[in-house]
Amino acid sequence: MNTGQILEFFQKAVSKNRVSHAFIIYGGTEEERKSVAIDIARIIECRTSPKICSNCYSCKTIPSGQFPDVHMVQPEKRNLSIDEVRSIKENMYTKPYYGSRRIFIIETDWMQQPAANSLLKIMEEPPSYGMIIILTRNNKNFLPTIISRAINLKINPDIEMSFDPKTTEEFVQILQSAKKKNWQELFKSAEGISRNSTREEIEHLFDSIISIVRQKVLAAAGFNQSLPEKKHSDIIDVDEYRVLAEILDKRQYLRFNVNTRIFLELLAIKLSTPKWRNWQTR
């Protein structure tokens, strides 16, 4: 779904009085997810709901964070803690001051176990006016029970090479340096991407690389007639399925506070020399 379709979904839900108490919005960019969540809150709280008038008190104050019944929760390093969930619980069960609902927009990519269990209890027994919107890059990082308790909406399901052209050029340089065994240039390029790109942008880069590798594997197996053309597919030399499996296994390290420069260096070496078998990051 694109962002417009998600907002249309909410407008229809409001008009039919069928708005759920919990949603997980994932995929897309951080800006897209946050923008959608703010507009969802405006759809629900606007005086002309399900339309957005952009002129009422709700519409004007929700984007700035001044509306009393819409709360933004932004954990440090996007890791939701038990203390933050306790704060949500304390405010969730207080009736709305001005609007029709108490809305909590939580930006998080993972949760500590106690926080996840506590949030699950809130989602299982929410007040009639309570609503939780979780914004995340990937909903697979959460407990299955949390995922099942919410309506999951994905933004932009088709991942393409949409990152900054300069980042693309720098990653190409990393691969070329790895093939030539020019380690000084490789380290310099990896440092440049790590310094100038957010972790989310690097995740998008990584997902696009996986998409390219998958295409090459399928093409090698003869399933290339219906495959779309991938930009920059010529920069990656992969001819074995095992390589794809190993690359997919390494994606988990981006979920933690791993050094992205070292991660990119190792990934470049692996992609450029697929005959290697013992690439380890542990």
Could you describe the 3D structure shown?
Helix content is 49%, strand content 11%. The protein has 282 residues and is of the alpha/beta class. It folds into 2 domains: 3-155, Rossmann fold; 165-272. The strands form 2 sheets. Strands 2-4-6-1-7 form a 5-stranded parallel beta sheet, sandwiched between helices.
SSE arrangement:
Blueprint: H1 3-15, E1 22-27, H2 30-45, H3 57-61, E2 70-73, E3 79-80, H4 82-92, E4 102-107, E5 110-111, H5 113-124, E6 130-136, H6 144-148, E7 151-155, H7 165-180, H8 183-196, H9 199-220, H10 241-250, H11 260-272
Parallel strand pairs: 1-6, 1-7, 2-4, 3-5, 4-6
- State Rg: 22 Å
Give the name of the CATH architecture of the largest domain: 3-Layer(aba) Sandwich
User: Helix coverage percent of residues?
Assistant: 40-55%
Distance between the termini: 36 Å
Low-confidence stretches: 158-163, 276-282
The helix tally amounts to 11
The CATH H-level homologous superfamily of the largest domain: P-loop containing nucleotide triphosphate hydrolases
What number of structural domains do the residues give?
Answer: 2
- Sum up the overall morphology in one term: elongated
CATH class of the largest domain: Alpha Beta
Q: Main attributes?
A:
elongated, 282 residues, five-stranded parallel β-sheet, alpha/beta, 7 strands
Write a short abstract of this structure.
This protein is an alpha/beta fold and 282 residues long.
